[in-house]
Specification:
heterodimer, A: 150 residues, alpha+beta, two-stranded antiparallel sheet, 5 helices, B: 199 residues, mainly beta, five-stranded mixed sheet, four-stranded antiparallel sheet, 1 helix
């Protein structure tokens, strides 16, 4: 069915727009198509009104109703909050493991050894050299067997 | 960041860190004249060399220096108790424990000093007219011990003569631990040098 050029004015009038109200009423008396269109709109409206159901909350349902609203409000910050604590716990555990490993493997500074003689020599003919450690004291000596030192 | 900024940053990163081993080494030296022998034989070692009879507890090693001024080295064990009548002057008194095995009775301080010496620089110690000592700190071990080269030289009597090394040794000295050098003959006894490194 092709629309009449007045169809849009009929639909606007049906929606309560006051523009061209008299013209629409006069046209509906003459135009069969627009009258049918108006009847369709009325049927749809009546059907919606008939199927619409008003929800009511009884007194014993009111507490659960409010609890549901509160739960919805309190759950809102969860997404970012949930991600932070697991990551923080993992980082803290890793740090504790690293510190424990360091403490176990760290044996402290090496103990200081006694004085060490790496080499000893003399240019004195016939002399000998040596070294000894006794009571923590290192002695390095030269022995020329009684020769006069010139 | 500009090119100059990047250049400065790279220079700072590549620059060598401060070397703590470059701090001067504190050297303490005492030269003690030991006289009046407590027993007839005062030589520090009478044991023949070359793998023959060694003193009890002695070990034999060879450690040549440079081109081979090799000498057999024997570690002697001290023999005989020290003389009971021992005299120390004020300078030698603190070293009484160190000098306990020296078989002399009288100990007189000829030279005592303490000075700071930079690494790889010679420190000269004119311990007595007959001997001069040179100590060169070389480097520092990770455990804090200091490697030094010690040379006790006999100055030449004539200018045209060369000095003679009576003793040259390379030591890795533990800080606070004395080292004793002995066997340097003097007209009346023996020169004993005590060294102490720190810092």
């Amino acid at each position: 069915m092709t629309d009449c050029r007045w169809t849009k004015y009929v639909e606007a009038w049906f929606d309560g727009e006051p523009a061209r109200a008299r013209g629409v009423e006069a046209h509906l008396a003459e135009c069969l198509k627009c009258a049918q269109r108006l009847k369709q709109l009325e049927q749809v409206r009546d059907g919606i009104i008939a199927s619409r159901r008003r929800e009511t909350i009884s007194d014993n349902q009111f507490a659960a109703f409010m609890a549901g609203i509160r739960d919805g409000l309190e759950e809102a910050p969860a997404p970012g909050h949930r991600r932070f604590w697991p990551a923080f716990s993992l980082a803290a555990a890793a740090l504790l493991i690293a510190i424990a490993t360091f403490l176990i493997l760290d044996t402290g500074p090496a103990p200081v050894k006694a004085t060490e003689v790496e080499s000893v020599s003399t240019d004195l003919d016939g002399a000998i050299v040596g070294f000894a450690v006794e009571d923590g004291v290192t002695t390095v000596w030269v022995n020329d067997f009684g020769k006069d030192i010139d | 960041m500009t090119l100059a900024g990047w250049t400065l940053l790279m220079a700072a990163l590549l620059s060598a860190p401060e070397d703590v081993a470059e701090r001067p080494v504190s050297l303490s030296v005492w030269a003690i004249e030991a006289t009046n022998p407590a027993r007839e034989d005062t030589a520090p070692n009478r044991t023949p060399i070359g793998g023959r009879t060694l003193a009890e507890g002695a070990t034999s090693q060879r450690t040549p220096i440079g081109g081979g001024m090799a000498r057999s080295m024997v570690a002697p064990r001290t023999t005989g108790p020290p003389s009971p009548a021992r005299r120390f002057d004020d300078g030698a008194k603190p070293l009484e424990r160190i000098l306990a095995d020296i078989p002399y009775t009288d100990f007189k301080t000829l030279y005592a000093t303490r000075q700071n010496t930079a690494y790889r620089q010679d420190a000269v110690f004119p311990v007595c007219p007959k001997y001069k000592m040179f100590i060169t700190p070389l480097d520092k071990e990770p455990d804090g011990r200091i490697r030094v080269n010690v040379r006790v030289e006999i100055p030449p009597e004539r200018p045209e003569d060369k000095p003679v090394n009576a003793l040259e040794t390379r030591l890795v000295m533990a800080p606070g631990k004395e080292v004793k050098l002995r066997g340097f003959r003097l007209p009346q006894g023996e020169l004993v040098i005590v060294l102490l490194a720190g810092g």
